[in-house]
């Protein structure tokens, strides 16, 4: 685990801290890459979190959301203690059985789903997985299939 102190900055509405170069190098070495989002875990002021490091506007940033640090947007300029390390644990989002069944029976929708970016696939799976009732699952699986056929919006998006 790598520990450092950093001042919270903000870009747009997103509070973040910059990770020191030597810590980034260690995380990249552990991850075996220095591109794309890098899964990490650690703590902010001793509160554990799971997050990703992302590169934006040429700089690697650790975004500090409100689940990591209460009222983080109001705490810009505050110095916090951050512990981070590469997180090698599996982070796949499971496919809801109802969505899988619908995709299995619709080859065209399956092909479109497979062509989507991993982040959009994850967003669709997560949306369906978080529904509370079977009726809502069935309703939204149908909406997702229609979306994959180019009919309407799903999860606030259009194809």
Strand tally, please?
7
Please give the radius of gyration in angstroms: 19 Å
Enumerate how many helices there are, as a single number.
5
Number of domains: 2
- The general outline is elongated
- The CATH level-2 architecture of the largest domain is identified as Beta Barrel
Poorly predicted tracts of residues: none
How much strand?
25-35%
User: In which order are the strands of the major sheet placed?
Assistant: 1-7-4-5-6-3-2
Q: What would CATH call the class of the largest domain?
A: Mainly Beta
Q: Which whole number gives the mean pLDDT?
A: 92
Helix fraction bin:
25-40%
Please describe the biggest sheet, giving its number of strands, its sense, and whether it closes into a barrel.
Answer: 7 strands, antiparallel
Would you kindly provide a written description of the structure presented here, covering whatever features stand out?
By secondary structure, the protein is an alpha+beta fold. It has 2 domains: 2-86, AF2212/PG0164-like (Elongation Factor Tu (Ef-tu), domain 3); 97-148, no CATH class. Helix content is 35%, strand content 28%. It is built from 5 helices and 7 strands, in the order βββαββββαααα. The protein has helices spanning 21-31, 97-104, 107-115, 118-129, 134-148, and strands at 2-7, 9-11, 14-18, 38-44, 47-56, 59-63, 79-86. Strands 1-7-4-5-6-3-2 form a 7-stranded antiparallel sheet. Helix 2 packs parallel to helix 5. The radius of gyration is 19 Å and the shape is elongated. The N and C termini lie far apart (41 Å). The mean pLDDT is 92.
């Amino acid at each position: 685990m790598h520990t450092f102190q950093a001042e919270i900055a903000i870009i747009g509405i997103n509070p973040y801290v910059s990770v020191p170069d030597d810590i980034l190098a260690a995380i990249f070495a552990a991850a075996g890459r220095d591109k794309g989002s890098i899964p990490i875990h650690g703590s902010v002021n001793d509160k554990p979190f799971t997050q990703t490091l992302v590169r934006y506007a040429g700089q690697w940033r650790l975004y500090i959301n409100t689940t990591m640090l209460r009222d983080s947007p109001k705490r810009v300029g505050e110095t916090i203690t951050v512990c981070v390390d590469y997180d090698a644990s599996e982070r796949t989002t499971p496919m809801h059985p109802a969505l899988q069944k619908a995709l299995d029976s619709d080859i065209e929708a399956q092909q479109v789903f497979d062509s989507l970016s991993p982040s959009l696939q994850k967003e669709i799976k997560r949306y369906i997985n978080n529904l509370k009732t079977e009726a809502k699952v069935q309703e939204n699986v149908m909406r997702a299939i229609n979306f994959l056929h180019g009919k309407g919006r799903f999860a606030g998006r259009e194809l």
